[in-house]
Write a structure and sequence with these properties.
about 100 residues, Arc Repressor Mutant, subunit A, three-stranded antiparallel beta sheet, about 10% strand, elongated
Length: about 100
C-alpha cells in the first residue's frame, strides 16, 4: 500500500487539535505527563505560534495504550462521563482479559 502525501496532509488539516492544558484537563492528568509523552515521541503534534497543538487521535490512542493514563482518563477525565467506553462483554473488548484467552 503506497503512502499518499496529499491524502495525509488533507486529513491533517481537518484533524482536531488541542493544547497541552486542554489535553491535561480532558484526560485528568498533569501537563507534565503530556510534555513527557511529546518528548518521548508518543503523541503527534504541531507547533502553532510557539504553542504545541496535539493531534487528538494520537492522544486518545496514547491514553488507551498507557495504563495509568487510561485509569485517570476513566476516573477523573472525560471517561467518567462516557459509559460506552466501558465494554462489559469481554468478547468485544479491545483489552484482552487477564488470562489472555477469550
Amino acid at each position: 500500500m503506497a503512502f499518499d502525501q496529499k491524502a495525509s496532509s488533507d486529513s491533517d488539516e481537518k484533524a482536531l487539535r488541542v493544547s497541552i492544558s486542554e489535553a491535561a484537563n480532558l484526560f485528568g492528568i498533569h501537563q507534565r505527563t503530556i510534555r513527557r509523552a511529546i518528548t518521548a515521541g508518543e503523541i503527534r503534534y504541531i507547533v502553532v505560534r510557539g504553542r504545541y497543538k496535539i493531534h487528538f487521535g494520537s492522544l486518545v490512542t496514547w491514553s488507551q495504550r498507557t495504563t495509568t493514563v487510561r485509569n485517570k482518563r476513566d476516573g477523573r477525565g472525560i471517561g467518567q462521563w462516557v459509559d460506552q467506553w466501558k465494554i462489559k462483554n469481554v468478547k468485544f473488548s479491545p483489552r484482552p482479559p487477564e488470562g489472555g484467552k477469550i
